[in-house]
Amino acid sequence: MKIFVTGGGTAGHVLPALAIATALRQRGHDVHLVGSERGIEARLVPEAGFEQTLLPGRGIARSVSPAALRANAGAVVGLIRAVLAAISLVRRHRPAAVVAVGGYASVAAGVAAVLWRVPIIVHEQNAVPGAANRLLARFAARSATSFPDTDLPRAEVVGNPVRAELFDAEHRDRPDGRAQLLVFGGSLGALSINRATLAAVERWHDRSDLAVHHVIGRRDWPTLDRPADTGALVYEAVEYEDDMPAQLARADLVVCRGGSGTLFELAATGRPAVIVPSLVTTGGQQVANAERVAATGGAVVVRDDELDGDRLVAEVDALLADPDRLSAMSDQVSSLATPDAADRVAALVEEHARAR
Question: Cβ contacts of residue 135 below 8 Å, gap of 6+?
Fold first, then answer.
């Protein structure tokens, strides 16, 4: 069958979309991705070997400032153009189903699917659904959610698809016996985490039993000064990490944001974490995600506005000093792992496409 997978904008949407598309292709279906010209999918989808159509326009800014209002006027025009392009695309290909993963482009393709009476399967990565998925779920045949209590109609919990190699990332101790702390805040970086980590590195100057791998991110890399001398501490700073599965495999503890993709990667690898969720995501999504993981016992949550070097040192030192607790946290976060998430979404697509 011809299947559309639509959405994107950020890696949090695009990576699950690619995982679902791969599962559908492995089942013999012809998969076409529909994204946005401005999203990261413009680069990631061709690298994965899928055909793609990129729609014009951009998302709506959630602000009433004069600049935002002017930008939103243009965004509405762009959305109309995107919907018209999507209507033509659906009419031309007549897909058997459309999978919407959220993000700007999924709205236009979803509207076109509704008009052409094509079944929609929504996949929501976060505990709190985004605006696009809340809209499309009203018309969807089924909503596939990552967390059990996500408020969408006709919901079925399937988990969040992550890279398959993460499930094979067995923990690898460092040869020198040091505990390994992995710190990252996304591809662009998280300024609060980066500043707290640099302050903590100064405090850990004399620790010969600790190694820190710090992924600073592309936005903060040019502006933050890395320490020239870290004493007995092993400290590695990189702008971007190309092999996150390997870094997760060697980590004893992770410090990270609360994006759903990140948290399900922790679950896949069984890595305990100190989660510092962003406070500016739509609907408090990262806070809600982090609370779900903390409820299993697999993570400690620190508010972004309460994080500094002293707090980070206190949390990390307490956890690394308690191997039994780290082991229990690893088991508990692993309970969220969903290695078959993409296949379960693919099965829902086949169920409702065939019914049509």
Answer: 107, 110
